[in-house]
Amino acid sequence: MDLGQLFVVGCASALCLGGGWLCVGRWARARHLLDTPTSRIRSAAQGYVELVGVLRELPAVQPLAPLTGERCLWWRYCIEEYRSNGKRSSWHVLERGTSDAWLCLADATGECLIDPRGADVHPAFRKVWTGSLRHPRGPAPQGWMRLFRGARSYRYTEERLHAGEPLYAIGDFRTRGGGRQGLDLQAAKREVLRQWKGDFAGLLQRFDSNADGRLDEQEWNRVRLAARLEAEDRHRQSSTAPSLHQLQRPREALPFVLSSHGEEVLARRLHWQAAGGAALCLAGALWLATQLGVSAW
């Protein structure tokens, strides 16, 4: 088998393996979405959950989309330049960016803050247009105004999420406050002691009863007792605070998805991608078999 045949066999093997990896990955991702039941925010279990609700504005100032300057809750953009060297012409990415502003999802039972970093986001709003400047000025042209744009050397893509839009979300759900967290007394006491030791002068002022500049065993016992009582008091205060629900990227290799489209739409897309991967895998396998058969002859 010469070098040319080895190269072809390598390409066929890569196509087969890549298609198989795409098929298995997309199929597993779709199964995660379909097999995870939808939860209500107030009663959701801690861990990997699926939520459905409506996006709401947070008290903080809404971010502005970087290309159009439009108000939104989340954005993603890309700027490309058209390049041609006589034989080949293509678009090359110059800039891209993604918002990291927190989102607020609400359903009939409560609200949940979402950290979108690391999420696979599928917004309903997506605008693509071209222009002659690297950075567009103002919103994308509409209607007949598009006829007067002149040379179009740059292509802009902007995606956004807005308040009032429906949102499907699946990720790692955690609740703080509201009595949802149990008390690990030993760990809480160690944390209090660690904080107090950071200000040892203050610790001496409070517990060095004989003013000898050190803490003896009896005084350390008083410190430990005070730390336990402080830990219990902190837990009581956090338990009476309102529940704060958060959704973020899972630590495990599980999908973290935010989408303006429903679960069925996402699963259908993933199934089609899995089918495409299977087709590539089969084509690579047939190509490889053909090359190996030719080599055998």
Summed up, the helix count is: 5
Strand content: 25-35%
Bulk shape: elongated
The quaternary structure here is single chain
- Order of helical and strand elements: HEEEEEEEEEHHHEEH
> Percent helix among the residues?
25-40%
| Count of extended strands | 11
**Overall radius of gyration:** 29 Å
Strand order of the largest sheet: 1-4-5-10-9
Uncertain ranges? none
Average pLDDT works out at 82
Structural class: alpha+beta
Compute the number of structural domains.
2
What summary fits the major beta sheet? 5 strands, mixed, barrel
Termini distance?
11 Å
How would you summarize the topology of this molecule?
Blueprint: H1 3-35, E1 47-56, E2 74-84, E3 89-98, E4 103-107, E5 110-114, E6 120-122, E7 125-131, E8 154-161, E9 166-176, H2 185-197, H3 200-207, H4 217-240, E10 244-248, E11 257-259, H5 263-296
Parallel strand pairs: 5-10, 6-11
Antiparallel strand pairs: 1-4, 1-9, 2-3, 2-8, 4-5, 7-8, 9-10, 9-11
Write a structural description.
The structure is a single chain. The chain has 297 residues and is an alpha+beta fold. The protein folds into two domains: 3-177 and 243-296, no CATH class; 185-240. The chain is 38% helix and 26% strand. The protein contains five helices and eleven strands, in the order H-E-E-E-E-E-E-E-E-E-H-H-H-E-E-H. The longest helix has 34 residues, at 263-296. The chain starts with a helix and ends with a helix.
